[in-house]
Amino acid sequence: MTLSCSATSSTVRGLQITKKLHITPLIDIQSATFAERYVTGVCWRLFGWREHGEVEAQGPLPEHYLIDNLKRCAQINRFDGRHEELLRKDIGFFLGMLHGGVLTPDGALRPDAKTLVIVHTQDFREGYERGRRDYFTQYEEIAHTEGDLLDLFKARTQDNLYLSGEQSTLRWAIGCTVGELSGRLFPMTEQEQLYKHHAPQVRSAAVLQEA
Fold first, then answer.
1. What is the distance between the alpha carbons of residues 171 and 166, in angstroms, rounded to a whole number?
2. Within a 13 Å sphere around the CA of 12, how many CA atoms are in the beta-carbon half?
């Protein structure tokens, strides 16, 4: 299979990974830089181990993959406003790797992938579940674009989350983001449908009690 790991500025809602593989990214991409690195991340996760003769390394990535890489970006000042192009490259690649981790080489969801990453901690799981609830119930407030996502990650740098000792808070916050990102790829579950159906009733009851 010939890889076509390139993207143009016209590929905003769809990315060509190979001649036969076309995917919808987790967010709406706004720059060629982000798109190219996103495609590279997907390709690396799906086919990179073959290219380099390594042991097969496909499959969902662990929750700490994005957390650790965002920490490194903060440590080398990627979020300081003077490295915008490099930051787009980094975040594009990280998201591509996450997306490629839950795909098969033909572009289908892996049957063993139930979440966008492998969840290890309760903090991350609670954030992930919150992010998915928000995606399906408060869709207009979710980060849908490359710019939205970069702004969100920058804001967390200003809050010093990446470099502080509050690791449980960081895991929860990144879990929320990853949960939101998963909404475009993983359909709403029966449990989430029940929550969406009952949440307005619960909020209405709370308002009546307060009144």
1. 9
2. 9
How many angstroms separate the CA atoms of 97 and 91, rounded?
10
Q: Specify if 5 maps to a domain.
A: no
Whole-angstrom Cα distance, residue 2 to residue 20? 9
Any domain includes 138: yes
**Residue 10 maps to a domain:** no
Helix (H), strand (E), coil (C) string for 49-67: HHHCCCCCCCCCCECHHHH
Q: Smallest Cα–Cα separation from 29: which of 149, 135, 140, 138? A: 149
Per-residue confidence in pLDDT tens, the chain, 211 aa: 233 444 444 445 688 887 778 899 999 999 999 999 999 999 999 887 666 555 566 789 999 999 999 999 999 999 998 999 999 999 999 999 999 999 998 889 999 999 999 999 999 999 999 999 999 888 666 778 999 999 999 999 988 999 887 899 999 999 999 999 999 999 888 887 876 666 655 444 444 445 4
- H helix intervals, 76-211: 84-101, 122-137, 146-158, 167-182, 190-210
- Cβ atoms of 169 and 161 closer than 8 Å: yes
Overall number of domains in the chain: 1
